[in-house]
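We now fix the convention by which a protein and its fold are recorded. Here is one such record, which you should read through line by line:

>
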Amino acid sequence: MPKPAVLALDLGTSSVRTALFDEKARIISGSLGRTEYDVRYSGESGAELDPVALLRATKKSLRLTKSRAPLVAGSGFWHSLLGLDRRGQPLTPIYTWADSRSATDAAVLRKKLDERSNQQRTGCMLRASFWPAKLFWLRRTQPRLFRRVARWVSPAEWIFDKIFGVAACSHSMASGTGLYNSSAQDWDDQLLELLGLTKSQLNPLRDQEEDCFPAIGDGAAGNLGSGASVPGIFAINFGTSAAVRTVPHEEVKLPFGLFRFVIDRHRALLGGAVSNAGNLRAWCLRELRVSPNDRALSAAAERAARLTILPFWIEERAPTWPENIRGVVLGLTQATTAADLLYATTAAVCHRLAEIFDLLESVNGPSKKIVVSGGILQSPASLQILADSLGREILICADQEASLRGAAVHALEQTGHKVPPPRYGRRFRPGRKASAAAAVARQQQVELEERLTIERF
C-alpha cells in the first residue's frame, strides 16, 4: 500500500469529507470518510449552519479516515462567516454564502462605494453572499452581538484552529470573503474602516504553518483537483451550488458580475458561481417526489422545452445577480409532469452556467478543455444536458472527490512535489438538435429575466 503523504479535509456546504493521499495525490484505499449535515433555511432568506454540528461531523469523518499523515491540508466552502468570542468559541451561527438577509445592506454599501472599482480591488461584488454585507447587516441589526465578537473567521479556519491548533487564514480563503485586497495581498483597509473593524479581528494571512496548510477555497481546490490549474482549461463544479472557473491569462480584465479569487499568492482564479444547482435538484426530488431516474429525465426533454424557468429558489449570483427576483416557472399546463420540471430546472441551471462560460471565454480566450466534477457525475442525463447547454464537449473528472484531491495537491505542490494530472473519464458531446434547442431556451431565459427586471424597476 502507498505511504500516506497528506491528510486532506474538504468542508462542504452539506457534508465534510476526509481522506489520505500519497505523494502523487492518489487517494489511499479505504481512507475516505464522509459525514453529512443540513443547512437551516428560513423564510426570511436565512441559510445557517450550526458550527458545533460542523465540528462534530469533521471529527467523525476523521475517525473514519483513521490515521494521519506528515502533511495536513484542507478545502472549505467560500464566503461563509462565523463570529467568535475571546476564547475562540462561536457567538454566532455560520452565515453561509446562501444567506441573503443582508441584501438591503449590500444595496446600502453599493451607494457608499463604487461597486465596479471595489470588485476590481477585491475580486468580489458588493452583494449579500460576501462578508462586507453580512457584517454591515449584523452591525445594524445586532449591535451588541457585533461588539462582542472578538474575531471573524470562515468555518474552515475555526475547524483547523480547534482540531490542529492553526489559527490562520490562507490567501485563497481570504480572497473569497470580499475583504481581501488582491494587489496588496492583505486585508482591505478601506472596507475594514467602513465596517468598523481592525485587522486584529481577523486571522493573520498565512498559507503554511509548519506541516499544516490552512484550508483554501473549495473552488480553488476543485480546479487543482481536476487538473484545471493552467490557463485554457475550464473547470465546472456542480455540487450543492455550481461554478465555472479558470486560471486567467495575465492582465485579463475582470468582467462585471464575475469574481477573481486566488489559488495561492501566485495564481488567480476567474469565474462565476450560481447558488441554485444540486440543492435545487434535491428540492425537486423531495418536494415533487420525483424519482432520480435518468431514463425518465431524458424522456422529458421535449415536454420540458415548453417551460422557461428562472432557477432562483435561493438568491442567485452570477452573472446577473438578480437580487429582486425569486424562482419563476413559466409555461405550466395540466400535462406538465414532475419529470418535466426536474428536467427543466436542471437545464435552467446549466443555461446559467453556459452564460458564465461564454463571458469567461470572451475575456480569456477559447477553452482547450472543459472538466466537470461534483455530484452531477451521478447523473449522465444531467451531464448531457450540461454539454448541450454549453454546446461543447465536456470531460468527466475520474476522481469523484476533486476538491478533496485538490487540497492534497495544494500541500504537495507547496512542498516541492510534482503531481501528475488526474485521470479523465467519459466524454459527453453536445447533440446538434439538442444544442440548438438549448440555445433557444437560453435566450428565452435571458429575455424573461430582463422583462421581470424592467417591470420591478
